[in-house]
Amino acid sequence: MITPNEIRYLNPPSVEVRKKKYCRFKKAGIKYIDYKDAEFLKRFLNEQGKILPRRLTGTSLKFQRKVSQAVKRARHLALLPFVTDLLK
Question: Which of 19, 51, 55, 80 could pair covalently with 74 via S-S, beta carbons 3.0-4.6 A apart?
Protein backbone atom coordinates (compact mmCIF):
# COMPACT_ATOMS: atom_id res chain seq x y z
CA MET A 1 0.00 0.00 0.00
CA ILE A 2 1.37 3.44 -0.94
CA THR A 3 1.08 6.18 1.64
CA PRO A 4 0.64 9.84 0.62
CA ASN A 5 4.19 10.61 1.78
CA GLU A 6 5.64 8.19 -0.79
CA ILE A 7 3.95 9.78 -3.82
CA ARG A 8 6.46 11.81 -5.86
CA TYR A 9 5.78 14.25 -8.69
CA LEU A 10 8.15 15.40 -11.41
CA ASN A 11 7.05 18.97 -10.82
CA PRO A 12 5.39 20.12 -7.63
CA PRO A 13 1.70 20.78 -8.18
CA SER A 14 1.24 24.50 -8.56
CA VAL A 15 -1.69 26.40 -7.18
CA GLU A 16 -2.46 29.43 -9.27
CA VAL A 17 -3.28 32.50 -7.26
CA ARG A 18 -5.15 34.92 -9.47
CA LYS A 19 -5.64 38.54 -8.66
CA LYS A 20 -9.26 39.58 -8.51
CA LYS A 21 -10.30 41.53 -11.57
CA TYR A 22 -11.73 44.96 -10.95
CA CYS A 23 -13.28 47.67 -13.05
CA ARG A 24 -10.81 50.53 -13.21
CA PHE A 25 -13.60 52.97 -14.04
CA LYS A 26 -15.63 52.16 -10.92
CA LYS A 27 -12.51 52.25 -8.77
CA ALA A 28 -11.41 55.65 -10.10
CA GLY A 29 -14.95 57.08 -10.19
CA ILE A 30 -14.88 57.79 -13.93
CA LYS A 31 -18.34 58.44 -15.34
CA TYR A 32 -17.55 59.55 -18.92
CA ILE A 33 -15.10 57.98 -21.36
CA ASP A 34 -13.77 60.59 -23.77
CA TYR A 35 -13.53 59.33 -27.35
CA LYS A 36 -11.04 62.09 -28.21
CA ASP A 37 -8.40 60.67 -25.85
CA ALA A 38 -6.81 58.15 -28.23
CA GLU A 39 -3.87 57.28 -25.97
CA PHE A 40 -6.23 56.19 -23.19
CA LEU A 41 -8.36 54.14 -25.58
CA LYS A 42 -5.29 52.32 -26.93
CA ARG A 43 -5.09 50.46 -23.60
CA PHE A 44 -8.26 48.62 -24.58
CA LEU A 45 -7.01 47.56 -28.02
CA ASN A 46 -4.67 44.76 -29.00
CA GLU A 47 -1.83 45.02 -31.55
CA GLN A 48 -4.20 44.51 -34.48
CA GLY A 49 -6.53 47.26 -33.28
CA LYS A 50 -9.29 44.96 -31.99
CA ILE A 51 -11.18 45.83 -28.81
CA LEU A 52 -10.10 43.62 -25.90
CA PRO A 53 -12.88 41.61 -24.22
CA ARG A 54 -14.11 42.12 -20.67
CA ARG A 55 -12.60 38.88 -19.44
CA LEU A 56 -9.12 40.22 -20.21
CA THR A 57 -9.49 43.83 -19.07
CA GLY A 58 -11.78 43.25 -16.07
CA THR A 59 -14.04 46.12 -17.13
CA SER A 60 -17.67 45.92 -16.04
CA LEU A 61 -20.40 45.50 -18.65
CA LYS A 62 -21.61 49.08 -18.33
CA PHE A 63 -18.19 50.57 -18.97
CA GLN A 64 -17.22 48.00 -21.61
CA ARG A 65 -20.14 49.26 -23.67
CA LYS A 66 -18.97 52.84 -23.18
CA VAL A 67 -15.38 51.90 -24.11
CA SER A 68 -16.49 50.13 -27.29
CA GLN A 69 -18.68 53.09 -28.27
CA ALA A 70 -15.80 55.51 -27.66
CA VAL A 71 -13.40 53.38 -29.71
CA LYS A 72 -15.87 53.21 -32.58
CA ARG A 73 -16.34 56.98 -32.51
CA ALA A 74 -12.58 57.54 -32.43
CA ARG A 75 -12.17 55.21 -35.41
CA HIS A 76 -14.84 57.09 -37.32
CA LEU A 77 -12.99 60.37 -36.74
CA ALA A 78 -9.65 58.72 -37.73
CA LEU A 79 -8.17 59.12 -34.25
CA LEU A 80 -7.70 55.34 -34.07
CA PRO A 81 -7.13 52.93 -36.96
CA PHE A 82 -9.66 50.27 -37.86
CA VAL A 83 -6.95 47.71 -38.68
CA THR A 84 -3.19 47.84 -38.15
CA ASP A 85 -0.15 45.58 -37.99
CA LEU A 86 1.55 47.01 -34.91
CA LEU A 87 -0.45 49.55 -32.93
CA LYS A 88 1.59 49.62 -29.75
Answer: 80
pLDDT of 1-30, one tens digit each?
666 676 666 665 566 677 778 899 999 999
Residue 25 domain boundaries: 21-88
Give the chain's length. Answer: 88
pTM of the model: 0.75
Q: Can you name the residues that pair with 51 across neighbouring β-strands?
A: 45
d(CA 76, CA 78): 5
Residue 3, CA distances (Å) to 7, 24, 81 in order: 7, 48, 61
Output the domain CATH number for residue 68: 4.10.640.10
